[in-house]
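Researcher: Checking consistency across runs. Here is UDP-N-acetylglucosamine transferase subunit ALG13 again:
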Amino acid sequence: MLAFVTVGSTRFDSLVNRVLSTPVLSSLRNQGYSELVVQCGNSDFDYAHLLQHQTSCDIDKDGVSIQLWRFKPSLQDEYERARLVISHAGSGTILDVLRMKKPLIVVPNPTLLDNHQEELASALEDMGYLRSSTPSSLDTTIQTFDPSSIQSFPQLEGSRFRNILDEEMGFEMGPRVTKTLVSEVPQIYENLHVHEVYDKIASHFSATRYKPWPIIAKFLSDLPQGSIGLDSGTGNGKYLPLPEENPGSVLTIGLDRSLNLLKIAKHAGVNGVVREVVRGDVLEIPWRLGVFDYAISIATIHHLATRSRRKIAVQRLLQSVSPTHGRVLIYVWAIEQDEFSKREIPVDDVAGDSGQDVFVPWNLNRPNVTPNDEPQTYNRYYHMFAKGELTTLVTEAAQDLGWYVGPKKTNYENVQGMHIIQDGWERSNYYIELRCWKA
């Protein structure tokens, strides 16, 4: 039998090297695969020198006949020949292979910062259409993979996949997003439309929040070993066990207002590890200033009902990390939705660059109800950020603390500063990464 590996148009060094390793080749051979074809793209790997002066090459290793090549105009013939496909997580490749009813193992590429296909792969795995793996666990995945257990992929239905991605990004199916006006004391408004809602939907909400987003996972993976950090607004704590490839190399402490979510976050991950979590407010600092090496705030600040409160939350993040080397990553929802989202954000004509306050519904399916009963809907308050708004907010927050915003300069003395490492829009979110410095 023949197995086909494809990495698409980019480079995926770790996958190609792992596929050609003895553990993976042994697993393939044990499952009856004597032939392996590898489309390696621009990847750098142990046998890459064999392709310097030819378009393809053949090698034998560990009882498997292997053909290597970088690109072809079409992969259709390879898909048809293969009894197993091992692929990167590009949505086009996934759908092409599933349409052909081929057994598929998907390996998301963690080096692609803007790659959210990992969530799609995970959702399709949960639906039984494929298996998802990592380079390091690929041999085990192959060894335990039973193609007969895979569900037959149905006729392609675009709305089905939009719904999957909407759920991953938190846009639960239900009534449309509506504009709102914060007409009460902000704290009371947040209690009614944020904190009380999340305590009620905690278990259901947590069930849709199980896969780390790639940029955030990479941020945590790049931290120096031994770093201690804060997840401000940790929710169900899905980022507390990271990095997956080196568990325990950093310690992230979770902070949240929802007691029910913290009960889940305390046991996030596998192996029965008890996580460090604290019940508190993102507008407060219940610890010594500068105690953390890093802080993340993922999909939290947009729940604060006024601009001044959102600015204070940013300042608390800056004050919580080391003034000399602290790193901060912030994510918020964006007015600008991508093509996968069925939600349209209503925007006031005067909204401009100040964003939009909205209610985003969450449908909670209740137990012991008849099929015709409607799910219970909770409206969650969100401030949807406009383009440039997050960067402006962060800049003003730092400047109001008396900080300099920009790269560190050698001629500065007694200056506290903050440098924006990167900012951008990614899959219906705005994000910004910051680095603190002191001269």
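Researcher: Does this match what you'd expect to see?
Model: One thing to look at in this run: Residues 186-207 form the longest helix (22 residues).
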